[in-house]
Amino acid sequence: MRSDDDADDPEVVTVGELLDRVGFDADDSVLTRRQAEVLALRERGLKQSAIANRLGTSRANVSSVESSARENVTKARETIAFAEALAAPVRVEIPAETDLYDVPGRVYDACDEAGVKVNRTAPELMKVVGDAAGDAVHGREVRRQLFVTVSSDGTVRVRQP
Fold first, then answer.
1. Do residues 66 and 102 share a domain?
2. Shared domain check, 66 and 15
3. Mind listing the pLDDT tens digit for each residue in 34-88?
4. Which residues contact 142 (CB under 8 A, 6 or more apart)?
């Protein structure tokens, strides 16, 4: 019999129990059941070799399944971001070579025009854009085109084409 302390031990909890706990349903997911199993076990700290032993497959297969799963998750996130951008009442294109200090003004102007309130100061907005843009922003220079969207509740999102 398992104790409550064992409930979080990846060696004791079955992968099916892990997926049940988070409500995984293969019919509603972009992940296959095997991809979900591998990700669940990796998130629990298991190495690929241990997962391979547990699932009765090779480490190379686990590596391939994990890579595909992470790619699917990235695509799903991008799809969600795209759908949110389409629905956002404020969409601002930030061209390459724009000074990061000019971004808040552009966003605030577009928000004023759409009647949307942004609950961020200019420095906070620059940080959000810089952090989300990654290497598309260097110092004060926007090196690649960005799209900033603001939802009706003021949530700011940044996407790269």
1. no
2. yes
3. 999 999 999 999 999 999 999 999 999 999 999 999 999 999 988 988 888 888 9
4. 94, 95, 96, 97, 98, 99, 100, 103, 133, 136
